[in-house]
Write a structure and sequence with these properties.
The protein is mainly α and 105 residues long. It has 2 domains: 32 residues; 72 residues, no CATH class. Helix content is 83%, strand content 0%. The protein is built from 5 helices and no strands. It is elongated and about 65 Å long.
Amino acid sequence: MKKIKELKQERKSKEKRERDEIQLKKLKYTELHEYEYWNKVDQLIADKNAKAYDEAIRLLTDLKELAIHKNNFDDFFNIVELIRHKHGRLSSFTARIDSAKFTEN
C-alpha cells in the first residue's frame, strides 16, 4: 500500500499535468487567433475607455505568454513599445501597460 506522502505527490503531479495541458490549449488557441488579438487590441484602445483598456491588457497578456512560449519575446516587446508610442497621450492606457510589466520576460 502506498504511503500518504506518495499519494499526495502523485496527486500534485497529476494536477500539474492538468494545469500544463490547459495552459498549452490556451496557447494554441491564442496562436490560432494571434492576428485577431492584435487587431482587437487596436480596436479596444480606440474605444478610449477603462473597460476596453482592461480587455486590451488581457489580450496583450495572452500574447505575451505566447511570445514567451515561442521564444519570440523581443518581437512582442517591440510591438508593445510601438503601441505605447502611438498611444502615449492616453495616460490611463499607458499606466495599465506599465502595471502589466510587459517589458519583463
